[in-house]
Amino acid sequence: MSGTKRLKILVVEDDNLNRDLICTLLRGYGEIQEASTFEEAQDLISFNQFDLAFVDLDLHGKQSGFKIARQAKDKSIYTVILSGQKDKISIKKAFDYSECDNYLYKPANLSMVKEVMEHFANQSEVLKLDQLISSAFTTNSSKLSEVLNVIKTIYKGQTPIYIFGETGTGKQVLAELVHKLKFGSLEDFYHLNCAAISDTIIESELFGHVKGAFTGADQRKVGLFEKAHGGTLFLDEIATMSPLMQNKIITAIETKKFKPVGSTKEVESHFRLIAATSSNLSDEVQAGKFRQDLFFRINGVHLKMPSLRERKEDLEVLIETISQSHSSQRALYVTKDVAKYLNDYDWPGNIRELKNLIFSWLDQSISKPEPKDLPSHIIKNENIFSKSKHKYLTKKQIQQIQEMGLKDFLREIELEAIEVAYRKNRKKVRATAKSLQVHTDKVYWYLDNSIGEQYELLQ
Questions:
Q1: Which region holds residue 198: left if phi is over 0, alpha if psi is between -120 and 50, else beta?
Q2: Considering the entire predicted model, what is its pTM?
Q3: How far lies 219's CA from each of 201, 264, 265, in Å?
Q4: How many CB atoms lie within 10 A of CB 373?
Q5: What CATH number has the domain spanning 308-379?
Q6: How many other CB atoms sit within 10 Å of the CB of residue 426?
Q7: So what's the pLDDT on residue 86?
Q8: In this predicted structure, what is the pLDDT of residue 211?
């Protein structure tokens, strides 16, 4: 436990010898306070904040340790019950009623205490991780949860990380979270958006330059490769780099050695690289737009950030979180009518688009938006970024065909078209068939492929 903070520990034991023994075993772990009665223990827990509590089950033979342990757990104290009783009833009550973290038999010994402290340290680390993760991402999505579970296992290492996800899904937030899990803050986290600047500027930003390296270089500039030593370098939209620039950074990424622009002196810097793209790098490699050798160097751990349309179950909590982050601190209430439009919409701009919508409401002092307060493209569920040149197919439909295959796509289109007509014609088979200019057998086929439908045979 060296190098960690001094813990505050409560020892509740009515036997003087046992209490002295426990305190001796715990010496060196932190500040210890003692209680020999139920009343003393209650007062100490009520007016102090402890990290751990060791509680004797039988305080003066009254088994009041159960209540003390429960009081400690209610204040989020890691609680260990000490008892000479080994019966199942006491053990069950300790875990079910008191919700203790450990149940140990007396007398305590050194190996027992070491084991408890190691378990406490591990549990505290998990709790700290969960708190940091939930502060960045509150989610009910299984897809996003999978990503967050992966970073719990890899955040301590140096393996490069590649994050793939649409714009606005939170790739930078995820990169920052990985760094914060390891270092506790955003100090020594450096970010460069490669799509926003030219090759010349990228080279200077990453490698730095010496004084006089080029016109206007009137002083030395320390590049991000050097600044990130011991920390993290996040290269966003790395796929937008030209092949020439990709070639220049390969050696620096692999060997952690490079030369600033205009310098003959090599600089060594060890950092963790996190790269991100909104385009699929595998496709970029196949198209010859991204170097395969660079792809393999950055693709140590591959994380795919789900789009908002893939995590619609998070809409409610995202709306609440985003609205609470607005400077006005104005409450926002979303009615069922508005919520339906938001749930039906595909959110091509993802969380960033949702945030812009919510902030626009609050900026206009709209606390209870109505459907009229929604943009027309959300009402119509239209992707304002989609510019298909095809006569009938949208970009989304073309993507669906690629994912599903043409046969399954056409089957789903046919089912949906018949369903719309069937309901429009008040669930009458012949009227539906007539409106679609198909045989009634086609409508019956639809009904046979629809779960739980009741339909009229005689019309």
A1: beta
A2: 0.66
A3: 15, 16, 16
A4: 13
A5: 1.10.8.60
A6: 9
A7: 82
A8: 87
